[in-house]
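Q: I have 234 residues here and want to know how they pack in 3D. Can you give me a structure?
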Amino acid sequence: MIIALISDIHSNLEALQAVWKEIKKADAILCMGDLVGYGASPNEVVEFVKKEMENRTFLCVRGNHDNAVAFGADWGFNPYAREAVRWHQRVMSTENLEFLRRLPVRQLFTDDTGRSYLLIHGSPRAPLDEYLFPWLPDSEFQAVLNYITQDDLLVGHTHVPVLKVMVKRVINPGSVGQPRDGDWRAAYAVIDTEEEPPDNVEFHRVEYDVEKAARKIIEAGLPRFLAERLFEGY
């Protein structure tokens, strides 16, 4: 069984389309949230995901930007992010906003070997907001894993890929639409259940039409910074 892991698309349709070409034959797609925010194609991204959810095994949880757009909960956001959230609220359809409101903050998945996964955007302690950065000490990851009974914890939010192997694993595929690890290419990960864990996770990057994605942000009147950062991967 091939399981594709994606997260933090952030209204970047061009990045999503590039990743999709690579993962469309996967047996399951698991998304750790933030379909929207920052970018200029929120309706298109949500409609793409909704359509694919109807036709295949595709699980998705709500991220903090999804939550902010859906419920107006943008306190604590920086000025660029807040401006993007409010633009999203103006341009998104009622149906797509309702879709974001219905996304759960946690999802469970079991693969064909019986291995279990908890999908969450941030962490079990703070599903929408906690950042599990790869440079945190092992003791912090272990403290987080003590909250779950599943074999693996799948997260997003940091926009930085990570595989932390304790007794259980923490896996972050990185960001599809706005990487922040110095590599501008769209990120995703794949789990092959025919291989033995913990070494059955592969991280991938794929180029996409970043010029088009950035141009759409500028043309939408969103902060230019949100376009410029796409080229640098930060």
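Q: Anything worth noting?
A: The chain has eight helices and ten strands. Helices lie at 13-23, 42-55, 64-71, 79-91, 94-102, 138-145, 210-219, 224-232.
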